Automatic annotation (TrEMBL):
Name of this chain's protein: Methylmalonyl-CoA epimerase
Domain VOC: 17-153
UniProt entry keywords in alphabetical sequence: Metal-binding
GO molecular function, one term: metal ion binding
Keyword Iron set for record: no
Pfam family, one: Glyoxalase_4
Species in which this protein is naturally found: Microlunatus soli
Example GO BP: L-methylmalonyl-CoA metabolic process
PANTHER family recorded: METHYLMALONYL-COA EPIMERASE, METHYLMALONYL-COA EPIMERASE, MITOCHONDRIAL
Signal peptide: none
Record carries keyword Magnesium: no
Matches recorded under InterPro entries: Glyas_Bleomycin-R_OHBP_Dase, MeMalonyl-CoA_epimerase, MMCE/EMCE_epimerase, VOC_core
Entry coiled-coil feature ranges: none
Length: 167
């Protein structure tokens, strides 16, 4: 691995944190129950995203166990249709890890900087993601085989319990 310091990385590329890890599943309820019952994770947010044809649940530590104000979460994704990206992923790879998401300050600036360095992004412009965040993805072929999501959280960060969003 390289030895570049964070000062050598342009501010547009500096990740603030690992935002979440995405897990694809055909059985949302069973997967959520597993992480709840085995590890004590709680449902922080749930929404239906019609644009991406998924239902998603964000899981995190109970507030009294969280190490930070905004801890890394697990995102459990289940397809709403057979032609969604998550359905195609499940057909190709089966259930399991689907993405790694990095939290960034400005998804458009980060996307522009990455394109300038020759990386392919899946969307020409950022799209609305979970809980009103703005997102884009680095193509896995340019990120060591990992689907890398860039997440600019909506402000203020709201942790609700079950709001549906048809974005």
């Amino acid at each position: 691995m390289g030895s570049a310091t964070s000062e050598a990385v342009p501010s547009a590329l500096r990740a603030a944190a690992v935002d979440h890890v995405g897990i694809a599943t055909a059985d949302l309820d069973a997967t959520v129950a597993f992480y709840r019952d085995m590890f004590g994770l709680v449902e922080v947010h749930r929404e239906t995203n019609l644009q991406q044809q998924v239902i998603e649940v964000m899981l995190g530590p109970a507030a009294e166990h969280a190490a930070t104000e905004r801890p890394t979460q697990l995102q459990v994704l289940a397809p709403l249709s057979d032609d969604s990206a998550i359905a195609r992923f499940l057909d190709r790879s089966g259930p399991g890890l689907q993405q790694l998401a990095l939290r960034v300050a400005d998804v458009e600036a980060t996307s522009s900087e990455l394109r300038g360095r020759g990386l392919r992004l899946l969307y020409p412009e950022a799209r609305v993601g979970t809980a009103g965040s703005m997102i884009n993805f680095v193509h896995p072929k340019d990120a060591g085989g990992v689907l890398l999501e860039l997440v600019q959280p909506a402000e203020p960060v709201v942790q609700d319990r079950g709001r549906d969003c048809d974005s």
